[in-house]
Write a structure and sequence with these properties.
This protein is about 55% helix and about 5% strand. The chain has 27 helices and 9 strands. It has a 7-stranded parallel β-sheet, sandwiched between helices. It has a two-stranded antiparallel ribbon with strand order 1-2. β7, α25 and β8 form a beta-alpha-beta unit. α5 packs across α11 and α7 crosses α17. The radius of gyration is 31 Å and the shape is elongated. One of its GO terms (biological process) is amino acid transport. Pfam families: AA_permease_2, adh_short.
Length: about 800
């Protein structure tokens, strides 16, 4: 890309919005590596891409580990389980619940790989039950999941505030903690975290990477300190850590105490969906989301298990821990280090990871609420679904989550067991949302294989990169659901006996009230609610010869996102078969397969090398293209979109080499003409319905050109000889085709797509001294599609037009 070759004073470039792709070597593929992944996955949600893709695989793994933060969550909430068996109870309960959550995580990873969406379980619960029950399942799953994360944010703010108060109390022995003190810290910490999420969106990957360093470094430091420092006073016995059961709940059944105590572990490990809510902010989410879930669950378990063993071996007086006036972990650290300074250091070591987790929790909660709002499933959707134009994030939705969390904090002032209520509500609501997506997945035969609908109206889902075979899959899914069903009930029991109004378990009240609110809003808005539409209709089995009003389009090339957006747009039309090309057989096309497909639509992907000529047209070239298409069930083509291009030289006439001229003519002129020659029989073919007397579909050849191919609009200071004359020759081909195909009725049009807001478009704008390109990708393709739709022998056939329909001089 040689931007310096474009004269900044050229009025033709400014007035006619040149195609930015002409200043970058265009790939001869519709699905080609990163450029494909960056754009194609988004429409799995059925929504236009609005948020920026800031996250890499490393940073998304960081988000999972930081938001999950298993060891810090387990330590910070240890008061929830320490009464349920003492140290052995905490350890064994954590192991047991982790096994169940590994199964839940595998179930969610499979769904995330099949249907990547920032809506997460809300989206999956809308799809897995099928069209009949998908709306109501998705509705409740979305509400449960969103408010679970708000409760999760409340718990993290509470833990962080308790740490701050505990540090203050260490240096003020006469200090008597009051719940309103913790509430003040809760509010301050909540809104600091919210502001970071609101106003530092582009820095979030870096913040999460820093958080990952805090988490891994923090657990390492804590393990080392707690393992070494008690050597002077002695460690706890093996029996104390592994065998001495201590039931301080008031329940007589130790078995029930064990099961109820698993709540602490469920809170610590039970966030496997968190990374799924960033599916629209990461490349290739079909693969990267399952990988991130796996990293989160495995590393989280290992660090938390080692951390818990270490702190219990450092604990010598369990009664003092149980009697601690606030934050029992403080007493454990004090016993481990024997000094206030050492305890303070360890509390700071856990505070920073917890604060980073709080940031990650608000990232997730805000995006959950945003995805609900964009489907108009919550009140004030018009305000909540807005993506801030400058910060590029769901700012309003994140603010709303902060407000809800603040309101929950008021409960802390009025109840001594409010923290447990937040923990219980988080676990109950989150697992209910998981149940709403996994249970229908089982009943519909996994990937909706048991659907009785067939043909263009089937609702089968497409498996993703991560897929379990049916034996393993059914086992994992069923056990996951049984765990959720049983333990949702157990986690709602009072934490201890006897209980009163102040010590009651309010998880069931919070979860029940939210469910009632969701039900009421369903009665108000459910009649007009459509829910996420993407994924309801996956790979279609439509036969091109039997389908009616079927548009078979083959795209050749990639115009920096324009070709991909064309594919995406076409697939949103019902009864449409789109043939897309990729450069080599090894090119990854998994993301392309995840594009949203309307009813009766399907995508055919073929390899198409640019080799042409009698000696070169062999396998995977135009030479065997017709045969390969027929093997895919494509016997006719109605619209041929030629979107290939090369632009590697913008030298002047005297400086342009013969090789550069030949290379540009090969890709921009000769190859499109050769493709037309090979596919002409399919263009002229008729479907059975057309032969039966129904209206014949008008066949079209669309050549994606550029204003730089206009001779009449050329400025002599614009050095574009190789690219310009190859596009001008392509325009000649379009005009010539118009006259040659008069008898057949084939329409031929050259279309200039405009200057689009892509990365390359912005780079070109910078070279011209222009703030930004004038067009969005959606606007460009919408215009191009408009010209394709209206194209006919009577309107613009044989013309060179812009995306707006303006005739451009030859």
């Amino acid at each position: 890309m040689e931007q310096t070759m474009i004269d900044k004073r050229s009025p033709s470039l400014r007035n006619f919005s040149p195609n930015p792709s002409t200043y970058k070597s265009e790939k001869v593929a519709i699905a080609d590596g990163e450029s494909h992944s960056q754009l194609a996955e988004v429409n799995e949600t059925g929504h236009v891409q609005e948020v920026e893709r800031n996250f890499s695989l490393l940073s998304i793994c960081s988000v999972g580990l930081v938001t999950g933060n298993t060891w810090a969550a387990l330590g910070g909430s240890i008061a929830t389980a320490i009464y349920n068996g003492g140290p052995p109870g905490v350890l064994y309960e954590f192991i047991a619940v982790s096994i169940f959550y590994w199964l839940v995580a595998a179930s969610l990873a499979e769904l995330a790989s099949s249907m990547p969406s920032s809506a997460g379980v809300y989206h999956w619960a809308s799809i897995t039950p099928g069209p009949k029950y998908g709306k109501i399942c998705g509705w409740f799953a979305g509400w449960w999941n969103t408010f679970a994360w708000i409760c999760g944010a409340a718990t993290m703010s509470s833990i962080a505030s308790n740490v701050v108060v505990a540090i203050y109390g260490l240096y003020h022995p006469d200090y008597v903690v009051a719940r309103w003190h913790i509430f003040i810290g809760y509010i301050i910490i909540t809104w600091i975290a919210c502001c970071i999420v609101l106003f530092a969106n582009r820095a979030l990957p870096m913040i999460n990477n820093i958080g990952l360093a805090f988490i891994l470094g923090g657990v390492f430091i804590t393990i080392i300190v707690c393992a070494i420092m008690p050597s002077g006073t002695g460690h706890a016995t093996h029996s104390f850590v592994w065998a001495d059961w201590a039931n301080d709940t008031g329940y007589s059944s130790n078995g029930f105490v064990f099961l109820a105590g698993m709540l602490n572990g469920a809170y610590a490990v039970g966030t496997p969906d968190c990374v799924s809510h960033l599916a629209e902010e990461i490349p290739n989410p079909r693969k990267n989301i399952p990988l991130a879930i796996g990293a989160q669950m495995s590393i989280g378990f290992i660090t938390a298990f080692l951390y818990t063993i270490t702190i219990f071996y450092a604990t010598t007086d369990l009664d003092a821990v149980l009697a601690a006036p606030f934050f029992p972990l403080t007493q454990i650290y004090l016993q481990a280090t024997g000094t206030i300074a050492g305890t303070t250091g360890l509390l700071f070591v856990i505070f920073f990871p917890i604060f980073c987790t709080l940031i990650g929790t608000y990232i997730t909660a805000g995006r959950c609420l945003w995805t609900l709002a964009r489907d108009e499933a919550v009140p004030f959707s018009n305000w909540l679904h807005v993506i801030h134009p400058h910060h590029k994030n769901p700012l309003n939705a994140t603010i709303a989550c902060g407000i809800c969390s603040t309101i929950l904090g008021v409960i802390y002032v009025g109840s001594s067991t409010a923290f447990n209520a937040f923990v219980g509500s988080f676990v109950v609501l989150l697992t209910l949302s998981y149940l709403a997506s996994i249970l229908p997945f089982i009943f519909t035969g996994r990937f909706n294989r048991s659907s009785q609908e067939s043909g263009p109206y089937n609702n089968r889902m497409i498996p993703g990169w991560f897929q379990m075979n049916d034996i393993v899959g059914y086992t994992v899914n069923i056990v996951s659901c049984l765990y959720i069903i049983v333990f949702v009930v157990i986690y709602c029991f009072p934490y201890a006996m006897p209980f009163n109004a102040a010590s009651m378990n309010y998880s069931c009240l919070i979860a029940g009230a939210l469910s009632i609110a969701a039900g009421i809003w369903w009665l108000v808005k459910g009649g007009n609610y459509k829910g996420p539409q993407a994924g309801l209709y996956g790979q279609s089995e439509v036969d091109s010869d039997d389908g009616r009003n079927v548009l078979n389009g083959i795209h050749v090339g990639d115009s920096d996102g324009i070709g991909l957006q064309l594919t995406r747009t076409l697939l949103q039309r019902e009864n449409t078969i789109v043939i897309a090309t990729k450069r080599t057989t090894s090119t990854d096309s998994s993301g392309l397969e995840g594009l949203f497909k309307a009813r009766g639509s399907r995508l055919v992907i073929v390899t198409l090398s640019s080799d042409i000529g009698d000696e070169k047209e062999r396998k995977n070239t135009v030479g065997d293209l017709v045969e390969r298409l027929k093997n895919e069930g494509v016997g006719k083509i109605d619209t041929l979109i030629l979107n290939a291009g090369a632009a590697t030289s913008f030298e002047s006439v005297k400086e342009t080499s013969v090789q550069e001229l030949q290379a540009h003519f090969h890709i921009n002129t000769v190859w499109p003409i050769r493709i037309y020659q090979v596919l002409r029989p399919l263009l002229l073919a008729s479907s059975a319905s057309e032969e039966g007397g129904e209206k014949r579909i008008q066949k079209k050849v669309i050549y994606v050109s550029s204003y730089l191919g206009s001779i009449g609009g050329m400025e002599d200071e614009t050095p574009s000889i190789a690219y310009g004359i190859s596009k001008a020759a392509g325009n000649y081909f379009v005009r010539k085709l118009h006259f040659e195909e008069e008898g057949s009725g084939v329409v031929s049009v050259a279309v200039h797509p405009g200057w689009v807001k892509t990365d390359n478009g912005q780079a070109f704008a910078d070279s011209l001294g222009v703030k930004e390109p004038p067009m969005s990708l959606e606007e460009s393709v919408s215009g191009v599609m408009g010209q394709i739709d209206v194209a006919s022998r009577e309107t613009n056939s044989g013309s060179f037009v812009s995306w707006k329909g303006d005739v451009i001089p030859w």
